[in-house]
Amino acid sequence: MTSSLPTPPTARTVPTATYRLQLQPEFPFSAAERAVPYLAGLGVSHLHLSPVLEAVPGSTHGYDVTDHRTIRAELGGEEGLRALAATARAHGLGLVVDLVPNHMATSPTHNHALRDVLRAGPESPYARWFDIDWEAGDGRLLLPVLPARLPDVRERMRVADGALHLDDQTFPLREGTEGLPLPELLDAQWYRLGWWRLARTELNYRRFFTISELIGVRVEDPEVFDATHGTIVRLVRDGVIEGLRIDHPDGLADPEGYLRRLREATGGRCWTVVEKILTGPEPLPAAWPVAGTTGYDALRYVDGVFVDGVGAAELSDVYREFAGRAGDRGGTWEATARRAAYEVVTHELAAETAALTRLAERICAADPALRDHAPWALTTAIRELLVRVPVYRFYREGDESVLTPEAARGATAAFAVPEEATAVDTVRGLALGRYGEGPEHRAFRARFAQTSSALRAKSVEDTAFYRYTPLLSANEVGGDPGRPAIGIEEFHAYCLRLSRDWPATGTVLSTHDTKRSADLRAGIAVLSQCPSVWRDLLEEVAGVPAPDPHLAWTAWQTAFGFGTPDPERLGPAVLKSVREAGLQTSWTEPDPAYERAVTEFVAAGPGRIPLRAASEAAFALEPHIRAQQLGATLVQLTMPGVPELYQGTEREYRALVDPDNRRPFTVGEDDDKTAVVRAALALRRLHPEAFAAPDSYTPLTVTGAAAPHCLAFARGEGASAEAVTAVTRLPLRLAEAGGWQDTELILPPGTWFDLLDGVRQFAGGAVKPAELFDARPVALLGRRPAREG
């Protein structure tokens, strides 16, 4: 193993920009190492690596951790990681690593800790690692891993080498049970093997969302934290890792406590951001010891400022007219999201609500003031309150700003008998921490919040986003499909808050989790400027029969954003969308005939017809799409925060939902987008203080008839600003209104150089956008010409 790198200074290292690489067996540490010279030349300061701890063999994402003690062998092990860090350091780059504290793979074959729990039960030293309700059911841990009911697969089971085997699965045996007949042996274990469908209602361990293959980890326990973080902390202290991205902190029992323990363990040496989804104006908790979020909130604002609100509303009318009752029967985003929440909390999260009911029952039975609530009433109250939590979860005890009296009144209305509705007050009081500080009281508060975040993710991101689809570009994590447009003043206000409160937060446009890459979304968002063009396009392709109009709308709009017919990539993405929507088919109850019709439709229509070339009007949108792509790119790279580039996005990058967006990284050919990226990153590295300092964002004044079409801001402190970003908004609407006319942008004092062409310069004061944007729809200005920078 190579020697440790020099220990970095104790002050936290803040990147100027990061570049996300998706590691997998086909792209291990050695492949990333070979990419270092190229990425250093691009101008980023840090490589952001997907999870590096040992995972299920063959995993293409690494979030299914199996062993926190070791760096993943398939990627090259710790030696390979250290070699990558050394090469990166030699080129001036650091490493940021994706850390997964909330869950592990539920695989006895590979998860050593869970394997010991299955063997020894509650007495295992690893039993404290997991949220297992041993009192539920028959007192054993349910493993819903069988492909069919137990009687149908029992004959395929065999005992050998001290373990139970079924196909490619291996399960440890409780001591002294190996010689028992199979039926008795199965009953004698600390676990119960069950059909996978039982997970929905019978599961008695906490999992990640609704994924039973990922079991929750209790990192709130100091011993569990130390055991699961020792390797990463050591690598931080050795200087191998300089930053951490914390995956899904909302799944933890105590996110703030965890983050404080992590900061203490790493000595404050890490730039740390959290994958926290903020809803609307929801702020990141100010007490969290982090630099900010991973950037989904920034994604919403950047995307939104390039959407025409009036056109988006008109597009929604066209959608309702076209899709009719084939989509989710409603008409508004809010109604769609609420219906999805009821479905998920009742079905997919039935086991989680049952666990909360058991906790509530035990608490009420021990407290004379809370007794005599029927279990069904507690369950109803839990469900009705969960669906009314307007954000992913709340963090402060007694937080009535989230679990409001209005929410309680709405939940109460679900009860036909007023006397039974008192269960709502009891459940709300338990969730807000009003009835005690015993272990089960704390467990209820934590599990209610954890279930709330799972419900929000599954019902909004993974269900409603696929059911309500007027403008697909708005259906992204952290987005609001009911309000896709953001005005310039609102965007500036958001950036001013970031610059003041979270200047080192992360910002993103494309990630491994986005449903559509930023460039693909830009193609769709342009439709908000021309709803009539979209209506005409749908009429032109009406001759290709679709299984239902909602699917047709979604598939054609996806294909329009993608730009190039490609059934091999579009087909799986569209099929995934209909399964997630759950309207005609689903992952667990598939309709083979419908899914076959979907595949055939994509092959005959969206996967074959070049929609953006289908008419002169559609083809004329290409420069406007490119303007949006370049504008969003430049804004994200120069707004407050630390920008992240997802692999390949330094050039035009059109990717669909995973696994399409997780293909191994390759270096492609530069284009005009690459020039924008290189110029912006070079400026950030040349003047880090202008981008990192608090209050270093200044909105610039634009006057004249076309002022709403120019978004401009300066970076740096007041008169000493070092950069100006100016981009064209809604260029199609601009052209329809007669162009820039008398519009002027007011630049800060001094001389400004065009960093994208290296030739032009502008004096401070009024400049006409028509002149500024005569060569391209975006401008990046600096105090010195590019050749000197």
Written description of the protein model:
The protein has 789 residues and is an alpha/beta fold. A hairpin with a 2-residue loop joins strand 9 and strand 10 (169-172). Helix 10 (309-323) runs parallel beside helix 19 (531-540) and helix 12 (350-366) crosses helix 13 (375-386). The protein is globular.
Mean pLDDT: 95
User: What is the number of helical segments per DSSP (H or I, 4+ residues)?
Assistant: 28
Adjacency order of strands in the biggest sheet = 16-15-14-5-2-1-18-17
Which residues sit in consecutive blocks of at least 5 with pLDDT less than 50? 1-12
Helix fraction, binned, reads: 25-40%
Give the overall shape, derived from the CA principal axes. Answer: globular
Class of secondary structure makeup: alpha/beta
Number of strands: 25
Strand content: 5-15%
Oligomer: single chain
Largest sheet: 8 strands, parallel
Distance between the termini: 39 Å
Radius of gyration: 27 Å
In brief:
The chain is an alpha/beta fold and 789 residues long.
Question: Which descriptors would you attach to this protein?
Answer:
789 residues, alpha/beta, 8-stranded parallel sheet, 28 helices, disordered N terminus
